[in-house]
Automatic annotation (TrEMBL):
Known catalytic reactions: (6R)-5,10-methylene-5,6,7,8-tetrahydrofolate + NADP(+) = (6R)-5,10-methenyltetrahydrofolate + NADPH; (6R)-5,10-methenyltetrahydrofolate + H2O = (6R)-10-formyltetrahydrofolate + H(+)
GO biological process, one term: L-histidine biosynthetic process
Lineage, broadest ranks: Bacteria, Bacillati, Bacillota, Bacilli, Lactobacillales
Subunit structure: Homodimer.
The protein's name in its UniProt record: Bifunctional protein FolD
Family designation: Belongs to the tetrahydrofolate dehydrogenase/cyclohydrolase family.
Pathway: One-carbon metabolism; tetrahydrofolate interconversion
Residues the record lists as binding NADP(+): G168, R169, S170
Provenance organism: Liquorilactobacillus uvarum DSM 19971
The Tetrahydrofolate dehydrogenase/cyclohydrolase catalytic domain, residue ranges: 9-123
Amino acid sequence: MNKMVAKLLDGKELSKEIRNKLKQRVTVLKEKGITPKLAVILVGEDEASKVYVHNKHRAAEKIGIETIDIKLAQDITEKELLLQVRKYNEDDSIHGILVQLPLPKQISEEKVTCAIAPEKDVDGFHPVNIGHLFMNNPHSLPCTPHGIMKFFEKYELPIAGKNVVIVGRSNIVGRPMAAMMLNNDATVTITHSKTKNLSEFTRQADILIAAVGHAAFIKKNDVKPGAVVIDVGMNRNDKGKLVGDVEQKGVSEVASYITPVPGGVGPMTIAMLMEQTVKFAERGVQIGNRKVSNG
């Protein structure tokens, strides 16, 4: 019997396709006198956050999106940060606002997330936007789950009627991912650190999404033969190498499709952030009772 080798879901290539289409959309906007603009707020000196912000800035620049990078001190007060957010909420030239997480201990991430105007919430984390998602009437989508859905669209992988198992229940990936899959007629199970006999659930999955934050957590024996495996993990192993939540070599022998790490979900997250910024510029921004038309 021949050993199965999973096909790679190439996030680098797909994100490149998406960026090229976004360039065209930005060109059309600029011809109407509108430049999509994204405000990115970075608090403190977290090295990983600096890298993420740099990558977002570089991606925006290539597409033609203007970015305003705001770097604030580690000891800034919550009130001062909320005033910054309010400033950009009220600036009609800004189409999207992103506050890079994590934030220092003295600042409530929930308060900051809720302070961003829902119509400028490019991360898709505002409770209003999450509510619309769960009601199957999405306005702004969390970027990582949205990017994952693009894989299924691009590679024409069916979702309806499939058994989807998600390992992880974060507000950033697990919970919104479940809503998106449910909205596409899948049968969804969310598992997590307190789930007993986890592998009994994962072995039932036609589509397995690992977002648990532990290196090589999902092994070959945890995966149903022929499953589509989405690895959301970004971990450093004991050698400092970037690895996912899935033991890639072994799982690739049983899965039909798999996302690599790096080069899978990561590039798609940034691509969706860019797409959402362009979409906001295209549709106009609603602030209070005022409508800013985009031509």
